[in-house]
Amino acid sequence: MKIGLFVPCYVDALYPEVGVATYKLLKHYGLEVEYPEKQTCCGQPMANAGFEEMTLPLAEKFETLFKDYDHIVAPSASCASYVKAYYPHLMHHECVSSGKITDLVEFLHDVLRVDHVPGKFPHVVSVHNSCHGVRELGLSSPSELRIPPFNKIVDLLSLVEGITVKEPERKDECCGFGGMFSVEEPNVSVRMGEDKIARHMATGAEYITGPDSSCLMHMQGIARREKTPVKFIHVAQILAAGL
User: Fold this and answer.
1) pTM
2) E strands within the chain?
3) Where is pLDDT greater, at 152 or 187?
4) Whole-number pLDDT of residue 176
5) C-alpha–C-alpha distance, residues 208 and 201, integer Å
6) Counting Cβ atoms within 10 Å, is residue 201 exposed (0-12), middle (13-18) or buried (19+)?
7) Is the Cβ–Cβ distance between 191 and 152 less than 8 Å?
8) Cβ atoms within 10 Å of 220's Cβ, excluding its own
9) Alpha-carbon span 125 to 114, nearest angstrom
10) Which of 18, 69, 126, 236 would be a feasible disulfide site paired with 200, CB 3.0-4.6 Å?
11) In Å, what is the CA distance from 237 to each residue of 123, 135, 170, 208?
């Protein structure tokens, strides 16, 4: 199985350790992993700002780079969901890559169906469900649908040796980042982030984790500014701890 590793621009620039952890984790399962060095931003920021036409050249480049892989894996629910859900509407031809891309959690849980992970993490963590992961990728059950609850992130983390997994009250509520929303409505965005962090803290967590570095980055910035004693870590880093 040949894997194309897609590392989103903000992960590459701000959280490269997340990309490294993802690579190590995929290699741990004996997969052939390649990182196309000419990859760029998927175009989601421009589309969110109302400039969707600027995304098309990036989508076409992504398709050229990744279409021949068996699977495309990204340590980002929001970027994976953008490629999966929106690229087919942008292009004037079939988008092969949109049918092959998965978030890391989705890939491990649904494709590989792993029953063990190498990570050891003797800490209490609270799981953050990003909006894209919940409502576009189905990583966990959205409360508004009134369906039997499930959470693929929790399933995977529960395999980690020594970990204690918690979930906050109103667990599928937005953290307030929302990409351009945090720029256009900063006061509302910050207040939503403060409320979300408070709910995570109420679980007794030492760490807040999730599949989206963008959500974690937003909450981490607020927590640092307000000197809230909690740490942030991407789920890939926990699953790959010790590799």
Assistant:
1) 0.93
2) 2-5, 32-34, 71-74, 101-103, 124-127, 164-166, 207-210, 231-234
3) 152
4) 83
5) 9
6) middle
7) no
8) 19
9) 21
10) 126
11) 13, 23, 25, 12
